[in-house]
Every structure is written in structure tokens, then in C-alpha cells.
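Hey, can you fold this?
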Amino acid sequence: MLSRDSYKSVIVGSPSRRLGQLYSHIYPYSRMQSTYTLQKLKKTSSFTETLAPDPEIPNVDIAKNPDTPQSLFHSARILKSGAFTWLLPEKRKEYKYLTASHPALADLGLDPERETKSDYFRMIVGGQKVETDPFPYSQAYAGYQFGTFAGQLGDGRVVNLFEVTNPNTGKVYELQLKGAGKTPFSRFADGKAVLRSSIREFVVSESLNAIGIPSTRALAITALPKTYAQRGTTEGCAIVCRMAPSWIRVGTFDLYRYRNDRQGLIALADYAIDHVFHGEKNLCKNFKSILGKSEILQQLGTLSKYDKLYLEIVCRNAEAVSYWQAYGFLNGVLNTDNTSILGLAMDFGPFSFMDYFEPSYTPNTDDVNERYSFRSMPSAIWFNMVKLAEDLVELLGAGPELLKDPFFQEKGLKQEWIKSVGMRTNKMVQAAADIFESYYMNFYMTLLCKRLGISMKSRDQDGILLLLFETLQKSKLDYNGFFVLLQKQPLCKTNDSEISNISAKFIPDNFEEDQTSGYTKSMVKGIIERFLIAFKKRLVEEDITDSERLRRAEKYNPLFIPKNWILNEVIDFTQKNNYDSSYLDKLMKMCCNTYEPEKWGDELGALEQHWLDDNKKEKQMLQCSCSS
């Protein structure tokens, strides 16, 4: 176990930016003197400006008209066509702003210290005040849930507000409210989100981002003291203001295939290319090396913009799974309706960080077949990529030349084209399968090697990494904590007796033996010793010093992970103490500065140490349901 002060002395030097989305936008925000405010930022809505609306509410004027039947807005129904429906959040009796994410505010180009004091900001992120230009809306989509098509789904409790652009970076984020009330897509649900699940989503969104895992974001959380929902028991509700560059999912494409709406599908694909990925020129530019190795793609010749769109989404999601497994994160549900085309982790329900390495672990009590377990995540995401190919079958099968044909553009396939289109689509999916597997495995192994502080070699997969997996699974030691401890140990010039002493440091103070199964301290110590000896040999091959290994590894090994038992304590405290956000604020400091413990603050030091302690066995590998 590392003490509070030990954690705060782990880092040598300052963390560097890496791999695109990282913890580069963290404290100290108090020194940031942005002149922009959320109120002043220009607000847009490219989704509603580009795609067709619900035909029952074809324009904003009808949405604003008090004579328009309210049942169109807040009662479940099937949209005949259209990508969205305009509507406002449902009003609540009382709102209580809890807290906001300083990193998320900074990524919008706003001053967190000033913005969080703004009445306008607090009212907007809680749904108490609503801008109507652009007018809010809820998105329609469909999806395969646990492998079975579920028909129309959509934003059943989400209202999208507007897009804003960071004036400094040019990055666009769309803000939305989760828990904002019933929509036409609520089906049998109540449109509410309970405080318990809202705190969980708020924390994990920002934790993943701070670690460096691509994720949707959480801007703020607001309690609704007089709003309740029935989830087994009666629970209080809340609203989370979320943000992302785009909220389009694979399930958005599923919807148009379900409707047999090819023109709507083409419009959606074009929107994704032009607005989400900022033009065909940007598609696959980060994946040229992996795509260039595909013999099947070479046989296909020139790729169309829709080919590139599909391959971009495939590569991003292969990368996403690599991140999740490298850090032991499980979403718990990976349906097509919560698989982002940007490869972002999203829609957090029964998620968890794995306490110890167990490939069969699933955090979802409803996942009885382990469809979304740790070992099954790559195949679950690939299933979703296949469904996306089925949605895009005409566009992928047509190829660049047929896409130019006027008949195809207007009406679709002629009978004589069907065979060649099917063959081309099959080849594209075969190529994508090879690319997904190769890229996922290479990126995953590379991340693990970075966590070890070494450069990946081809033999590492069946060498040191295989031994790493065996060691972690048999020892049942804290998964992420193992990497943090390992990076600190002097191994390069140690002898065997010193390695024996080092291996003892990995045994937690509260280790619980099980004599029946043979799970004892001596057994675990022996397993660790075997790994350390092999790892030392690997370091000799690397010709690296311990200090250089630490310098490399510390950038990839978070010092704090919000485990389920910690989240449960924060939820319990907040609920029992009249929405006191002190535990939540402390947790956010630790999560958002996971590589910089000196920024965790001096308040609640005993609580901080409690969260850093090796948790007891009964707190490990917890599960929860989809109820939220």
C-alpha cells in the first residue's frame, strides 16, 4: 500500500501530453483568465440544421406553438421519418446545482472559477433555463441490444441543447441534459435519471478523460430534490450536463436501415463525413499505415468517401477497446446504440474498473452470458462494426464509380448490380475484420508496454505480456495498482535476493489468505518473484535504466481510479447529507488529476487515504444493474 505522501512523491517532473485526448487541460485553472463565458459563446446546432426533423413537428414554430399537442413532445411514439424531434426539457419543482468539472469547462475555453459562480451557467446546465435559438431536440436512433434488434430507441431522457466552439482551439462540443424528462423515445420509461447513476456517470466521464481514454464528457451535475423515480426503491433524481463533439452512434445508422430510408441514410453518412469528421480529407489520415497493409483494400483500388468513413469508425473503435482493456475498464453494456462513431466511451450504466485481472468479469448483473465481459469486449464491438456495414451495404458495395451513377443516386440498385455490390461489401468487411484485429491487438500491446515503461517488441505478446496476464490473474492483486508499484521498483541492478524482497512489497497489508484454494502470501510472492525475474531480463534487453523506465511509465499509470465501492461511498454521503458535494468534489480532484497527486488538495486527507488503501475483498469486483 502506498501512503498519501508516497503517492504525492511518485511523479518526477511534469506529465506530458500524449495520444490526442489527455489530461492536458487540468488544474491550475484558477490562473486561467479567459474572457469568454457560456452565455457569450455562439450557439449552433449542425445536427438539426442539416438533417430532417420529425414530420409531426416539422419546424421550430410548431414546436413553440402552445396549441401543438403536448403528447407529441413527451409521450412515446414511433417517428415515421426524421433524425430528431424538437422539444424542451420538462420543468422540475426544484433544482440544486452540485458541482462542475473544471477540466470540461477549460476544454470549452471558459474560466472554471468564474463560470461556476454564474447563475446563467448553473441554470443552463441544470435545465432550469433553456435557450431556444437554436431550439433543443432529442435524437432518434435504433439499436441491437444484447445481440437482438430492439427497433426505435433514441434519446429517452436526453435533450440536446446546442453546440459551442472553444474560441482558442476551434473544437466543437454539443451540450445535452441527461435526465431532462420524457421524450417521444422514452418508450416505457419515465425520462428521469437517479442521483446515484448521475454521480457515477459524472465521475467516470471525467476520470476516463483524465487517464487519457477517449470519452464523452460531463460538464456539471444538478440534483432535483423534489423529483423521484422508482428503481426498485424510490430514489432522488438529478440531471447531468454532458458534452461531446458528436452524439451519433452506430445505432443512428441502424435506424435508417430499419426504416428502409436510403436517402436519410445517405444524408446521415454525409453529415458524419462533413461535420463530425470535418471532410473526406480527414478520414483515415491517422490510420494510413495500418490500412496500407491490407491486400484486400489494395485489390479494391480507389476507396469512396463512404469506405473511408466506415474504416475510420472501425479503427477508432478498435483503438477504444484497446484503451478499455489496457486500463481494465468495462462499460457493462456495448450495444450498437451506445457505440460512438468517434470511438468514445459513452452512456455509462453498470460500468466498472476491474479490481483484479479476471477475463470473465462483467460488472453488469444482467449480463448473464458475459457478452460484455472483459474478454468479450473486442468481439462485442466487432459485432457492432458488422451491423454498421450492414447499414451501409449499398454505399460500401457501390464503390466510387457506381456512386456517380444518377440512377443509383436517386433510386438505388438495379438488379444487375446486386451481385457485384454484395461481393464488394463482403470484401470490405473482410478487410475491416483484419484491420480491426491487427490494429486492436497492436495498440493494446503497445499500451501495456508503455505502462511497463518498455518499447514493444514483436516477441512481447507471447513473452513478458503473457506472463504479465498470468501473474495478474493468479495473484489477484490490484490491477492498476500493480503497474504503479512496478514502475517504482529498482530492478536493473538487483540480485535475486533483492528481487525476493521487492516481491514482498506487492502484498497488501490487508491480504486475505485462502488456505483451501492455496491462495497464500507465499504463493502470491512466488508468482510476483517469477515475473520480476523475467521482467528484469526484458529490461536488460531494452538497455534502460530504472529512472528512464519510471519517466516513461508514469505518464501511463494513473495513481487513482474511481472504483465502485468509492463511488458508492460518495453517493451515500451525498444522499444522506442534504446534497453536500464535499466528497464528490474531493473525488473529482483526485480523478481529474490522476497523474498529479500534489493537486488533490489538503482537505479530507483521511478520506483520501481511505480511498487509496487496498480495498477489502468484499468491496472488489462489484456488479450493478442497468437500472439508472
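Oh, and this one too while you're at it.
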Amino acid sequence: MESANKRNVLSDFLSTLLLNIDQKGLIVYANSSFFRLTGYSEEEIIGKSIFPLLKQADAAHFKGRLAIASTAYGKVFRYHIGFQKKDQEELKVELTISNQLNHPDLKCIIVEARESAYQTISHEVGLSDENLFKLIWHNSQDAMRLVDENGIMLMVNQAFCKSVEKTEEELIGRELSIIYNSSMKEISDADARREQLEHFKVNMGERNVPVHLEKQLFLWNGKKVWFELSNAYLTHPDGRILLLSVFRDTTEKKLAERRVRESESLFRGIFNTSPLGIVTLDIKTKLITNANPAFVKMLGYSIEELTTMPLGEFTSSSSRNSEREGIEKMLRGELAVYENEKAYLRKDGTAFTAKLFLTFLRDHNDEPTLMLGIIDDITDAEEMKRRLTQLVSELRHNNTLKDRLLSIISHDLRSPFTGLLGFSDELYHNFSSLDPEEVHHYHGLMYRSLHSLYDTLENLLTWTRLQSGKLTANFTSFNLVKLIGKVVESFKATFDKKGIRLIIVAPDSLTMQADTAMMQSILTNLLSNAFKFSFKEGEIRISVTDRGGELVLAVRDFGMGMSKDTLNKITKDHKTVSRQGTENEPGTGLGLTILYEMVELHGGDMKIKSMEGEGTEVSITFPTTQH
């Protein structure tokens, strides 16, 4: 067999790059894989220096290694390097350099570079075709097999033995079909091998063996292996036609491709069916490159409209700044995932609250290629959270009301009943021994207790209606000064008992918009409190001021006043404080609470000034126009 023939055929079908270079780095031989992968022609390479084909840093490194190899006969050096292809792209490989300069027959360097695994084997050997063939045969990582026309294996290299897990002794002289099993359960392995061998013989006889193919082989040991297979015919010196086959194991590549397809299928399924909005964005322009149906529905734009818009188009400028900072942190490696909660605007102008998650999609070199955004509409969750917070607040408020109600019932309502029971008991058991004046006295006490009880119940009912929302304001226009006169008239007899002087400072007529019944209740409570805490022969002043846009109603007494602690409880903590008047008049503290509620219903504001021993002033500001 001619070794030159074998070398040329082997070189043409090996996927590795083969180069012969001399000690100065001049290329004297290159195989077809080198030309195919780098894009150069034979005229552009043979006789030229190898150094211009390398990156500047790699060329300096290679020159140094070459110099070391020139003085280290028989040693092998391996390292990574990058060839510059004709189109200026880089082809990364791994090199092995072996010094054979002092060999009696071998006087140059052969470079074998495995591009797909980035592994190159370089051996400095002579130009002898036989030596070159042997070197390639024994050192190549591609599996090689030589068979005759009958399918008998004549030669196998170590890589082939390793691939099929059989020794050279188990393979040489045997039919090529012994390494295979049947891929179909209904056909036995023996029948499958026999059929495969006959098929091979027919193809060999017709010179119909495929030159290149990729297929999955079912090996004798049960393994399933994918191979890229290259075939070439050789002619033996005795005239026999032989077939040289070069196998490259692509199982890992196929598994990787399948994993990629499965990942793509899984991502596509999630992308299309997820209820979350999912978008991909260009890292440089920040424009949306794709959006899933959920995101399209969420924003109300078409996919065509969305793919011309940046994600920040739907948010405020402050949110866009925050996103920009988050992306910069991700690019610097300080952040894996950026997340933010903010408001988004739909195409129809309505807003919704969503949580945004941003991260990078990366290539096999861990370089970011796209940005992935996931948007979770949490509007319903936020509304539920808000509603729950409101319900909790209402429950707490109702619980406080319950405690207040129980306190009033247990104290302010029970006390008058206790007095009434005592008076009625005295009258019942001692009526015959009491003179008319004493009976009249007890009747008077009972009368006042019943009126106090009635006022308490009236206030309690008003307060509960306000708390439950059943009491609403019905705004009408009326003369406030006239209403004040009506309420004051009803208090005339009461004021006379204490000798209270009443001073009114108001215009003759002043129209306002308010609920008449509530305003009467407000005036009644103000005058009742002023009377209760005024001393005998005291004075109460009522003033009304029109400030243009608002009315100010003020009631001032010069009675017992309040301490700072009591005033703070009423004005700041809005607590009910029960106090007796100057003549021991009973009170529940509900009056001021009712005042606050009714004033609030009118959009007004109430302020209280008081000093112990000097009296109290309550001023209420009402807007002149109600909406």
C-alpha cells in the first residue's frame, strides 16, 4: 500500500488541521481541513510563515515555544492558540509541539490541531509519507478503520478500539459487523449483523458507500453512539479496493443539541402559556424583541407595536432611572436579578401595579446576549391586601366602639338608674311619712335624672348611627343666625337657673349650606357643654364670622375649663372623657365625640382651647360651599 496515497486520503478526511512547518516557522504542507476551516488557499499558505496567521500575543508565544522545542529533542509541548481565519475571525485550537529536528530522516514540524475540542497535536517529524501516516494513525483522536471489499477489518487505530471497547486482536481479521447490535427488537443481533454485512458488500461492489454521513450506531455492548463518518476508497498494490473510515464521536454534541432543543421547547411552552408577562430585550437599545401573549394582553398593545418600544415606555422616568441602574449593576456582575415593584400604563391609559424581574440570557461563554423581563401583575393582590388592611382597621374600630358602648352602658346609663331606684324606693316605703315639700323634692330629682338619662340615650343613638354610617348629611341652604336664635331660646329657662348671661356676636342674617338637623344638634351640644361647665352668674359668648369662603362658629364659656391632660385626650387621642359640671351635672363625654363626627361630615374643622379655671372655647370652621 502506498503511504503517500494513504496520507493524502487520511489528511483530506480528518477533521483535525495538519501542518508541516520548518524550524523558522515556514509552512511546507497543510491538509484540506486546514484550508476548509481557515478559508485560505494553498497558494496563500504553502511556503509562507505561520506567524501572520496567529494573533499578535499568540504569535510571540508560539515563537517562544518553537525556540524551546528546537533545543528539546523528542519532547512534546501542548497549549491553546488562536488562528486568524481569512475572514478575520478567530479559530481557537489546542497545539502540541514535538521536537524531531535531530531525527536522521525527519527534518520538519507537523501540526495536528483539533478545532472542535480546541486540541492540536504537533510533532516535529520528517517529510517521510510512511512516518507521517503512522504518526496520524497512532495519535489521532478520531477513530479509524481500514476494511476490504468483504467487510474484513485490516487495520484499526487505538482511538477506534477505545470507541468500540474491543482490543486490536479482537477486531483485526474480523467482520466489521461484530461491533454492532440490532436497533430493532424484532430482529436478532446475528441476523442484523448478517444483513448489515451483505448491505456493505453490495455498496462496496457498486462503489456506493457514502462519503460523509452522521448516524447513530448500536454497539455490541448495548451503547448507542452518534458518529460523524467519512469514507474514502484506497487501492492496494495488489489491486484490491479498501475502504478507509474515519469516525468522530458526536454523542456529546447530539446530547447537547437535544438538551438545547428540549430547553427551547420548554422555554417556548412557558413563554406562550405563562400567565406572567415575559419579554426579551436588546441589551444595547433596550427595545423589546419579543413578547408573550400574556404581556400583549397585559399592556393592550399588539406584538408589532411592542417590538418597536422600550420596556421603560410604560413607566415613569424615575422607574426608568432605577431600571438603568439595575442593568448597569447586572453588567458589572454586582447583581444577578434586578427586581422592582411599580405602576405600568396600558395603551388605554389605565394603570396597574406589577412586579418586574430582569436578568440576562447568556451564551456558552457566559456573555449576555439578551435581557429577559418577567412582569407579574399584582394589582389584584394589592387590592386584596388593601381590603384586608381596611377590614382589620374596621374590626379594630368596631372593637373600640364596642368597648366604648359597654363603658357607657355600665357607667353612664347605670348611674342615673341607681339614683332613680333610690328615689323611688324612698317614696315607695316612706311616702306616708313625707311632707309635700319632700315629695316634691324627690320628684324633682327623679325628673332631672330621667332627663339626663334621656339625653344620654339620645346621644348614644346619634353616635351609633354616625359610627355605622347610617346618618348622612342632607345639605340645604338656611339662615344660620336664625337657627342659633331658635336653639338659644330653648335654653333660656336652663340658663336662668344658673343666672348665665348669653352674648351673641353675629350679623343679622347669614346663609350657609349644611344639614339643618345636624347643625341644630351641634349648637345644642356646644351650648349644653358651655352651660354645664359654667359657674353661676357666668357668661357664654356665641360668635359667627364670615371669612369669605368659610364660616367660623365659636362658643366660649368662662367656667371650670380643662387640664392639659384632659384636653389632649379629647383633641389628640379622640377619647371620650366623662366629667361632671359645676353643679354636679352628669356627662358621658359623647357630646364632643358627636361634634367631631358631624363637623367632619360637613368638611369642617373643630378646635378646642381651654385652660383650667378660666373656661373653654370651641371654634368650628365650615366651608361656605358644599360639594
